Amino acid sequence: MTTSFCNSPADRVPMAPNPAPPSGDSAQLLNALPHPVLAILPNGAVAEANAAAEAFFGMSRTSLRHQKLAELVPDDSPVLSLISQVMTRGAAINEYRVDLGLAKIPGEKLVDIFVTPLPQVGEGVVVMLQERSLAEKIDRQLTHRGAARSVAAMASTLAHEIKNPLSGIRGAAQLLEAEASDADRALTRLICEETDRIVKLVDRMSAFSDERPIERESVNIHEILDHVKKVAQVGFARHIHFKETYDPSLPPVLGSRDQLIQIFLNLVKNAAEAIGEESSDGEIELTTAYRPGVRLQLPGSSAPVSLPLEFCVRDNGPGIAEEVLPCLFDPFVTTKVSGTGLGLALVAKIVGDHGGTIECETNARRTTFRVLMPRYAPRDGRGASRR
Description:
The chain is α+β, with helices and mostly antiparallel strands. The protein folds into 3 domains: 9-132, Beta-Lactamase, CATH 3.30.450; 135-209; 217-373, Histidine kinase-like ATPase, C-terminal domain (Heat Shock Protein 90, 2-Layer Sandwich). The chain has helices spanning 25-32, 51-57, 61-64, 69-72, 78-89, 132-161, 163-179, 182-206, 221-233, 257-275, 343-353; strands at 37-40, 46-49, 93-101, 108-117, 125-131, 217-219, 241-245, 253-255, 283-290, 295-296, 305-306, 309-315, 357-363, 366-373. The model is unreliable at 1-20 (pLDDT under 50).
């Protein structure tokens, strides 16, 4: 494939200066769009990018405007071919369900690509990318909540129908242990240990049946993440390097401090287990960011809910098997030999109870769990703006 903006060395020098950045209402409108939008000059240079494009490409708007699109995607990327066609024909072209690779981020993203020429001939094109995976992940999130409710009903039954008989079995084993021989005493202890293990499993499942309203307050998420990191570093993740990329101006979360700790402690523990104790270069990255434009239609709500707060737990472990990914947050789904498959299902339930959603992206050496949540808004309306 040959295009006018990605192969010739001379094209590395912009043919025209980047236009002045949009200001006022135009900039706000561009950044309010939930999908990545780029303005591309005829020589392939990025003239403008919105906030969603910053998140998509993993770099700031200033950095994007110093690059050509051919430097952000592989040489054979379909988006380069589409741009070339639009510039040649002068008409808009759309392409759906495209696996788009990024030059600096491993893996591929499934996107719909919309390319349209700018009004004046020779000004370039506008490219909009719509991640299909986000909509599909949100649909799966609603399914996860339904599955959690099913587990809740089952947990209530199990708690009543199983725990009482187990208590009797354990009591009988303890009575037998007092008069048993040494060989038989080992068997009675085994009965007690296995009974206790089943009770713990039922107790974990009982957490799904807790429908009491969450006692919420204004919570600083960075304090939560710092607490989780300290707990991890003195225990299961003492051999792993932690990296923090925080937005210091992030507004608070409206939530339960204890439950938020439970969410991120579980995610960090899973990341540490994925990396493994034998790894010498294991790294877990904790990130926070403000992503305007993400909205979710929740059951029982008349309008979409804004979820601008993004919290990520990223690890450089081997990744998650592709066949497991679609049902990762379903109960009893696990990749661990001794796992119960309830940890991530409970995380999804707690995130859902907070009005948010959780999603996972995985590639070799880069797995990201992304939690999206609403921001804290006082009843008197103060603090409604981000900064």
